[in-house]
Automatic annotation (TrEMBL):
Pfam families: KH_NusA_1st, KH_NusA_2nd, NusA_N, S1
The keyword Glycosyltransferase belongs to this UniProt entry's keyword annotation: no
Alphabetized CDD domains for the sequence: KH-II_NusA_rpt1, KH-II_NusA_rpt2, S1_NusA
Residue intervals of the S1 motif domain: 141-206
Protein name (Swiss-Prot/TrEMBL): Transcription termination/antitermination protein NusA
Any one GO cellular component localisation term in the record: cytosol
Family: Belongs to the NusA family.
Location in or out of the cell: Cytoplasm
Keyword hit for Transcription: yes
Length: 357
């Protein structure tokens, strides 16, 4: 490699490190491995050599290591060198020493470097993919902000986050969101997995984790651990329920989440484009918790059956509130409590008991 080419080569690696965050040293090590493979392919797999790229000037050198033996004992020229030949390279040596010396490799420099180019490119790509994986793995289960770059005809949203374009698929979009190219948007990093190619990074605007993280951002008492989010149930873009709890006596957990004049919850609702959020206090007594979760309905009685079903009795006037539009309130209550919720009108239940008698 010419001096000018070597300088440009090292400058390119510096730029790669700055722009992509890929370690210059890791790339140089990958290049050395690639060139070593190329050298052995051309000069023999049994050659005991190493390829070194000078970190200061980019020059490529090949060094062989051989054990010094008497000429009569020379069996493997790839790994051994006679004492007579060794002294031509270095005078003060003796039998049994290992001699490391530079190999004349002009032909290799002209040909093998070019042959190894694709291997080097592949190693750089692997290093970049590893960097991207590590970068986003650290952000798994968190919210990041990106810019919408384009929307395809399948309604996939392409969002640029720190120079990387990720896809928000329709299955992870909220029905209340309106996506416009050029706008900034918050997304939840649901999972990051390694693959043979680009890391699989799943982002979401629909997942319950997004709502939970928004609560942590907006409500300091949750961040500090004074208030704990026990469970979240969400039908994105429509309605959600969040159960909160605190071991600190006399703290208004629901009020703290709502904030003064509703400021805290308003910020969350605005981010979710009007999604309705019910905040309920988690209770250790499951009957009381189920009753609270079915708010705004007033529950008359809750009984936990042997199969784990919560049998809920309400007045006729409360039935529609308890079930909710298209059964939404009951569905969210079941998901929030982890139980099957069976809602019945109190009068009809009484009639059934009379019939059984």
């Amino acid at each position: 490699m010419k001096a000018k080419d070597s300088k440009n080569f090292l400058e390119a690696l510096d730029e790669l490190e700055r722009e992509k965050g890929i370690s210059k040293e890791s790339v140089l090590e990958a290049i050395e491995l690639a060139l070593l493979a190329a050298y052995k392919k051309n000069y023999g797999e049994d050659e005991n050599v190493e390829v070194i790229v000078d970190r200061e000037n980019g020059d490529i050198k090949v060094f062989a290591s051989k054990i010094i033996v008497n000429a009569d004992d020379l069996l493997d020229p790839n790994k051994e060198i006679s004492l007579e030949d060794a002294k031509k390279i270095k005078k003060r040596v003796k039998v049994g020493d290992t001699l490391k010396f530079e190999v004349n490799c002009e032909d290799f420099r002209r040909n093998a470097v070019q042959n190894g180019k694709q291997i080097v490119i592949q190693k750089v790509r692997e290093a970049e993919r590893e960097h991207i994986f590590n970068k986003f793995k650290e952000r798994e289960d968190s919210i990041v902000t990106g810019i919408i770059r384009r929307i395809d005809n399948r309604k996939n949203i392409f969002i640029e986050i720190d120079g990387i374009e990720l896809i928000l698929p329709p299955a992870e979009q909220s029905i209340s969101d309106v996506y416009r190219v050029g706008e900034r948007i918050k997304v939840y990093i649901l999972s990051v997995e390694k693959t043979n190619k680009f890391p699989k990074i799943l982002i979401s605007r629909k997942n319950e984790g997004l709502l939970k993280k928004l609560f942590e951002i907006e409500i300091p008492e949750i961040t500090s651990g004074i208030i704990e989010i026990k469970s979240v149930a969400r039908e994105a873009g429509s309605r959600a329920k969040v159960a909160v709890y605190s071991e600190v006596p006399n703290i208004d957990t629901v009020g703290a989440c709502i904030g003064q004049r509703g400021a805290r919850i308003k910020n969350i609702v605005d981010e979710l484009n009007g999604e309705r959020i019910d905040i309920v206090e988690w209770k250790p007594v499951i009957e009381e918790f189920v009753s609270a979760v079915l708010s705004p309905a007033v529950v008359s009685n809750v009984t936990i059956l042997e199969d784990g079903t919560a049998r809920v009795l309400v007045e006729p006037s409360q039935l529609s509130l308890a079930i909710g539009k298209n059964g939404q309130n009951a569905r969210l209550a079941a998901r929030l409590t982890g139980m099957r919720v069976d809602i019945k009108v109190i009068d009809s239940e009484a009639l059934k008991e009379e019939e059984n008698e």
